[in-house]
Every structure is written in C-alpha cells, then in structure tokens.
Design a protein that fits this description.
262 residues; mainly alpha; two-stranded antiparallel sheet; 11 helices; 3% strand; flat
Length: 262
Amino acid sequence: MQTLSSDQIAQLAAAIIATAETLGQTMSANAAQLMAQDLAEHPADHVAAALRACRRELTGRLTLAAILERTQAADGRPGRDEAWAIALASADEFNTVVMTDEIRQAMGVAAPILEAGDKVGARMAFLSAYDRLVTDARAEKRQTNWTVSLGFDPDLRARAIEDAVRLKQLPRHVADQELARLSYDAPPSADGLAIAGLLTGKVARPSEENRERFQQLKQHIEEAEEARLQREAAERDARIAEFEKRRAQALSELEKREGARA
C-alpha cells in the first residue's frame, strides 16, 4: 500500500533533485519521479531523513539504492555488525540482553556452531541468516520488535533495560514493566545457585525443569576447561621441543668447531 500521496511524491521528486544537485549531480525530472514512486511505500519522515543522510554522507552519485539503504535503517533494526555483537553478548547467560526478533532467530542458527568453538563460522552463519530475516521483515512491513532476555546476573538486568530505553529500543512503559518484574531482594533461585556453583565449586541442585540445561552448561564448562588444559599442554610440549631442537643445533655447531680445531 502506498504511504505517500501524489502531492508528496511530487515534493519528494523535487527533494531528490535538490539532493542530487548538492552532490554535484544533474538529475532529470523523470528519473527523480521514478525514484520517488519507488520510495512511496515508505514513511515520508523516513525518506526525508534518508535524503539528509545522503547529503551528509555520500561523496559520489545519488542512487536509489543509497536512499533505500538509509530509509530502511530508519526502522530501528541494527546493522549486521551491531546485531552480531548483541547476539554474541547473549551467548553469555549471565548477561541481560535486549534484542530484536531477527537477532534471536539468527542466533538460533549460529548458536550450535559457536558452541562447537567455531566463532568465525558462527558469525558467517549469523550474518547470512540475519540479512535474510531482515530483508523478509522489511518486505512484509513488519515493525521492529525488541524484547528482553534476562540473564543470571541481577546487577546487570536493570542497567541493560535502562540502556535499551536510552537507545530507544524499548519504550518507557515496557521498560517499567520489565523492571517491575525484577526483585532484587528475592533470595537466589535454585538455578542461580547451581550456575554459581559451577564457578565457585559449591554444589547446589538446579530445579527439575532446568536440570538438563544445567547439565549441558556444566558439560560445556568442563569441555572448555579440558580444551584449555590440552592447549596449554600442547604449547608446553612445543616449547620443550623447540628448546631441544635449538640445544641439539648448538651442540652440533660446537662439535663442528671442536673438530675443526683438532
């Protein structure tokens, strides 16, 4: 459905021509009209903001792609690199993270690869899925939906929610609802004590519904520790082997010099 009226399209075409001129480019009225029609399905304020961004940022020709890129970014969805940073933060279950639906879904694709230890492969899988999900969401005109994923660390929860309000990711009333759900005076849950016990060595039993997840996390920590020990052992063996190699070379050189003097 077309968002801009015919008068607004005419005004937009004029604004496109003016923007092109500020960039040292001559554009015909017909070309500007076609570009305006292609942009008509987007909110007028988003398109106007995109043109302002083009005037500030572009150093070459004004193109429809450049305007569309900035128009779509006005929907509040993070760029792919920012989205990956948010997704990576969510991999730490102690963090409270505010993310979009597309980040959550793309992380579902990348999480198994990340858990296997392949961070580069996980990032590639995430970006591919995220780009596709964002393209589909924008094509279907779905609004950006931010949700809160609470982490185990209570001290980080309120800070993450307030940051989301400051960044205009969450409206104030939604943030207030989330903050009302938090109880800082409540004693730690069985799950919280069990997770903390993995780090402190104090044994605690998780709740029945989260027992399997706890076991998986415990196994992940144990595997990571085992991998660290193996890596350190391999590095130590490599240093010893290098030392023995240099020692053998030094002895060989010494024997050669002694033989030459004899």
